[in-house]
Design goal:
Helix content is 40%, strand content 20%. With 276 residues, the protein is an alpha/beta fold. The strands form two sheets. It has a six-stranded mixed β-sheet with strand order 6-7-8-3-9-10, sandwiched between helices. A four-stranded antiparallel β-sheet has the order 2-1-4-5, covered by helices on one side. The structure holds adenosine-5'-triphosphate and magnesium ion. Adenosine-5'-triphosphate (ATP) is lined by residues 11, 17, 35, 37-43.
Length: 276
């Protein structure tokens, strides 16, 4: 579905910002892109979306090279949620906003079909359509931006720090909705995220970047257990993983509070928690 082949990209002649990236993401995967500030994450997702094109190497979406497909063609397949919803929202009501995106991307469909898509997504997100986006909270505006992307039904969803600045409830709202799309419609998700607790809860696989290169690619829970890698990438693993690792034997696979509780009970049944 997404194939990066030795992709490098330079913003200027100062040398490449991302270097020799190669990875493949299949349909229905939920992948997190991790790394410190300036590691090249946003550059990488912009390359996937085709907003920028590789200086060398190839980026293929569905086998089609982003160097030759048009932005409007790709917009049918790829939805991009920016970190700041206000860069995305441009209309005065939620309905107008959603219809604007639909008309732009689904330009081959009738007005009735577009209205039906709009009604469905409004109901799903609990909007009447008459709300004015700029009088809503930031979290709600992020939901408006997400609704207008999902209305188009993209096969690939790119999220660049989707939950920054949100409170816990808003974060769960957005992330649960994204997970539902991923599970029910097999939408492929690529998420840049600095919140490792969110990554552990929602993503299955992680790509780790540092200094513009790809350091590692693997299951999230395995990636977080590699101390040297975490240090190199300046990532602080989720508390649950750090705790599990400190507790050692029998706790190694405890990634969730439930698994941790079970491991504690099992240890107790064996005759108490061992002190090392
Ligand atoms: N439009 C641009 N022109 C020139 N340099 C840029 C541009 N955008 C980003 N860069 C540089 O490229 C490098 C990688 O930036 P990028 O935005 O991809 O990092 P990031 O991993 O998304 O970081 P953050 O976590 O801070 O969002 C940085 O050194 C940045 O200064
Ligand atoms: Mg970024």
């Amino acid at each position: 579905m997404i194939q990066a082949e030795n992709v490098s990209f330079s913003y200027s002649d100062q040398g490449p910002t991302v270097r020799d990236l190669s990875f493949h993401v299949g349909k229905g995967e939920f992948v997190a892109l991790l790394g410190a500030n300036g590691a090249g994450k946003t550059t990488t997702v912009r390359l996937i979306d085709g907003l920028i094109r590789p200086t060398t190497g190839r980026m293929l979406i569905h086998g089609a090279d982003t160097a030759v497909t048009s932005v409007s063609e790709r917009a049918k397949h790829v939805g991009f949620l920016f970190q700041n919803p206000d860069r995305q929202i441009c209309k005065n009501t939620v309905r107008e906003e959603i219809m604007f995106g639909l008309r732009t991307v689904r330009d081959d469909e009738s007005e009735e079909q577009l209205n039906a898509r709009c009604d469905k997504v409004l109901e799903d997100f609990g909007f009447t359509g008459e709300e004015e986006p700029f009088s809503l909270s930031r979290g709600q505006r992020q939901r408006v931006a997400l609704a207008s992307i999902l209305a188009v039904e993209p096969e690939i969803l790119i999220l660049d720090e989707p939950t920054t600045g949100m409170d816990y409830r808003e974060c769960c709202h957005i992330m649960d909705r994204i997970r539902r799309m991923n599970e029910e419609q097999q939408v492929t998700v690529i998420m840049v995220c600095h919140d490792m607790e969110v990554v552990l809860d929602y993503a299955d696989r992680a790509l780790v970047m540092a200094g513009g290169t790809l350091l590692a690619d693997g299951p999230v829970s395995e990636i977080f257990r590699q101390d040297e890698l975490m240090e190199k990438a300046s990532i602080l693993p989720p508390q649950m993983i750090s705790l599990a690792r400190r507790l050692g034997d029998g706790f190694d696979q405890a990634d969730t509070p439930e698994a941790m509780a079970e491991a504690v009970l099992a240890r107790r049944a064996e005759g108490g928690v061992r002190h090392e």
